[in-house]
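Structure in, sequence out. Go:
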């Protein structure tokens, strides 16, 4: 059980979580789906590389932790979370064949990501008892840290009006905003699960550091992979300077905003319900073409 004080969640924010049957068609989405800005598009495209394997890993870990949950409402939330994450994985996975058709084969990178989640962060041959529970709690805490950033990104994409003004592909934006809205919708589940089954502050800090470093490394590596292998670019490169400048214009999350999110998560009073707006997320999900049969 939790041994760390935290802010109380916003009670009115709690809603029933459910997986939505979504439909996206990629035939008309160009490789550079943000006109004239391959760097920003490819930086966001890294999601399609990371999320299928990552969210399959979330589901695998959470199925193992279900027996440790003694709160009925939290159990239902976790089951709803599992359903949503499985759908996210499938939806992003469906983009990869389209990228390959356009001449950008993501397989070399996705193979590395699969290895990370299946081998490095996968199940280990440990004796039953304390050692096996320790490894499970480490992964539960790591997911909570990652979900802090997926909620941050979800809140950003829901409000990234600059992408609309730059003519970004509506289908891709709808995929990203549907996913982002569900990340905001279920943003409290991973943290509340961690607090329920463990809640140790040192573990929270340690796994945050691991998750943050891994995400930063994988994201910059993925952006560089896409830019270097884009068949339409003679010398495609990605740099932190490009990322910073894109953040200043609103095309990507700003570096200051990302840095400010760190002390919020590390605060002993942290609770994810203070991040983003459930009302905004639910409103988008009600209007999303992809989340409503493509209408």
């Amino acid at each position: 059980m939790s041994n760390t004080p935290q802010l109380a969640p916003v009670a009115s924010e709690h809603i029933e979580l459910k997986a939505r049957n979504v439909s996206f068609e990629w035939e008309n989405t160009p490789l550079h789906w943000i006109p004239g800005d391959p760097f920003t598009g490819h930086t966001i495209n890294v999601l399609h590389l990371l999320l299928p394997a990552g969210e399959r890993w979330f589901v695998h870990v959470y199925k193992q932790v279900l027996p440790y949950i003694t709160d009925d409402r939290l159990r239902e939330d976790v089951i709803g979370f599992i359903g949503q994450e499985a759908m996210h994985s499938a939806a992003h996975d469906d983009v990869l064949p389209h990228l390959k058709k356009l001449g950008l084969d993501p397989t070399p990178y996705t193979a590395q990501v699969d290895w990370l989640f299946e081998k490095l962060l996968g199940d280990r041959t440990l004796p039953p008892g304390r050692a096996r529970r320790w490894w499970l709690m480490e992964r539960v805490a790591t997911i909570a840290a990652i979900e802090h950033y997926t909620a941050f990104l979800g809140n950003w994409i829901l409000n990234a009006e600059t992408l609309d003004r730059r003519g970004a592909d509506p289908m891709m934006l709808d995929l990203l905003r549907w996913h982002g809205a569900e990340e905001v919708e279920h943003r409290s589940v991973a943290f509340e699960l961690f607090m329920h089954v463990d809640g140790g502050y040192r573990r929270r800090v340690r796994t945050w550091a691991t998750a943050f470093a891994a995400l930063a490394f994988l994201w910059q590596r993925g952006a560089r992979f896409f830019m270097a292998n884009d068949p339409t670019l003679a010398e495609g490169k990605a740099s932190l300077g490009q990322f910073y400048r894109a953040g200043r214009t609103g095309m990507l999350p700003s570096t200051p905003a990302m840095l400010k999110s760190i002390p919020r998560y590390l605060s002993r009073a942290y609770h994810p319900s203070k991040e983003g707006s459930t009302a905004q997320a639910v409103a988008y999900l009600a209007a999303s073409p992809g989340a409503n049969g493509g209408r």
